[in-house]
Amino acid sequence: MRADELDVLIRPIREALDVYDLGADSDIRPRDLDELKRDADALLVAVRAGEIKKAASNVAGLIEEGTTTAHALNSTEGWLTLASFYRTAYDVAAKLGFPDLAQLSLARMHWAAERGSDAVLGGMYQYLRALTYLS
Predict the structure, then answer these.
(1) pLDDT (tens digit, 9 = 90+) per residue, 23-35?
(2) Cβ–Cβ contacts within 10 Å for residue 20, how many?
(3) 63 near 82, Cβ under 8 Å?
(4) How far apart are the first and last CA of the chain?
(5) CB-based contact 101:117 (threshold 8 Å)
(6) Contact at 8 Å (CB) between 25 and 63?
(7) How confident is residue 39, by pLDDT bands cut at 50, 70 and 90?
(8) What is the reported pTM?
(9) Which residues, other chains included, contact 63 with Cβ-Cβ below 8 Å and sequence gap of 6+?
(10) Ranges of each domain in the chain
């Protein structure tokens, strides 16, 4: 892709990753958590199918919606769904050649996983972080 095409995909992801700790956004009306979990799963499937542009186009908005949901519900499932969106942001950034954004996405994934008390995601964070540095 051309640089301007990449910027259109990457800039919203950068912005979405930046508001992780600001709490629920009153301008966002999140859908049901089950719908968000289905979207998180669909993003993972898209990445595995090589549909990076599709995943990149959707992940920023889902991070914003997931952030509001996680803060509003403050539930394990809410935080883990948000962590999944961050994981997809990592995949997109890594595959499109943005290692700084990949590292930031991993840090956000780890942050959300801690709030969801998920040791498996904590281990995944360490593994993916090591892979990022090796790349």
Answers:
(1) 888 899 989 999 9
(2) 18
(3) yes
(4) 21
(5) no
(6) no
(7) very high
(8) 0.88
(9) 13, 16, 17, 82, 85, 86, 89
(10) 3-134
